[in-house]
Each structure stands twice: as C-alpha cells, then as structure tokens.
Design brief:
Layout (H helix, E strand, L loop, with lengths): L7 H25 L3 H31 L8 H7 L10 H25 L3 H30 L6
Helix pairs in contact: 1-2, 1-3, 1-4, 2-5, 4-5
Length: 155
C-alpha cells in the first residue's frame, strides 16, 4: 500500500462509517412509520436494508482498525461527520433515497481515493459495497415513486 500522507483514507472511512450510521437511522425511521398491513413487502425490504447497513458499518469499523485508526465513538461525532442528514418535515422514503444517493457518491469517491493511494483492499471493499448501495437507491426511489403515484403493488 502506498503512503497516505494526508490522512485521506482514515478521514474518508470515518465519513463512510458516519454516513452508513445516519443512513441506517433514516432507514429505521422509515421502517417504524410503515403500515405493515398495507406495505408488508416494503417493510421486509427495509428491514433487510437496515441489516445490510449494520454489516457495512461493522466492516468499515474493522477496516479502520486494520489501518490503525479508531472509529468515531459517539452519535454526536457520527452526525457531525456525516454528509447525509435527515431533512425535517420531508417524506421518510424520499429522505432515504436522497441520503442513500449521497452515501453512494461518498463510497465511489473514497474508493477512487483509496485506489489512487495504492490501498487496493480498501478500494475493493468500498467498490463492492457501492454496487449494493446503488441497487438499494434505485429500489427505494422506485418504491417511493410508486407509493406517491398510487401505483404501489406490495407483491
């Protein structure tokens, strides 16, 4: 691995971890507000997404430890570091789609920084997760559009 003299990789991983936690909070808030009788399939998809984000956060924290860094220790620090924030008064699913798009951009940018720094392991880890996050962004955006247009089919 090449030297990361400016500390971009540890700082970027902290932001990725913070983004992942905030995105998880937004996804869980959306899940709490779903009428499971009407949208049980959507609830199941959101539950899987929350579990996936838990896994991403765990893996990111482990990658930070492997690189000799420490993950943020408090919710306040995570919220301060995150590039995605819940938008007051907005729709939960739209909030989730916007936050997921921001997280996907951060994963993409950080993957490129890691690759350019010669840290192929971190670049590979981030690129692999990016595809899964992009798929979730597309799915959440489509579900939100269908629900708001009255065309949602929960099968």
């Amino acid at each position: 691995m090449a030297d990361d003299d400016d500390g971009a990789i540890p700082a970027g991983l902290k932001r990725i971890l913070a983004d992942t936690f905030v995105l998880r909070f937004i996804a869980e808030a959306a899940l709490w507000r779903i009428d499971r009788a009407s949208y049980g399939g959507l609830a199941g998809r959101l539950e899987k997404f929350v579990l996936f984000l838990d896994e991403v956060a765990r893996d990111t924290a482990l990658r930070m430890l492997v690189l000799g860094d420490t993950p943020p220790k408090t919710i306040d620090e995570l919220m301060r570091l995150s590039s995605c924030q819940p938008r007051a008064g907005s729709d939960d699913l739209i909030d989730l789609a916007y936050a997921a798009m921001q997280v996907a951009r951060d994963f993409c940018n950080m993957s490129l920084i890691a690759r350019d720094s010669g840290d192929e392991a971190t670049a590979h880890f981030l690129a692999g997760r990016l595809g899964q996050i992009e798929e979730a962004v597309w799915s959440i955006g489509r579900l939100s559009r269908d629900i708001h247009s009255g065309q949602f089919n929960d099968s």
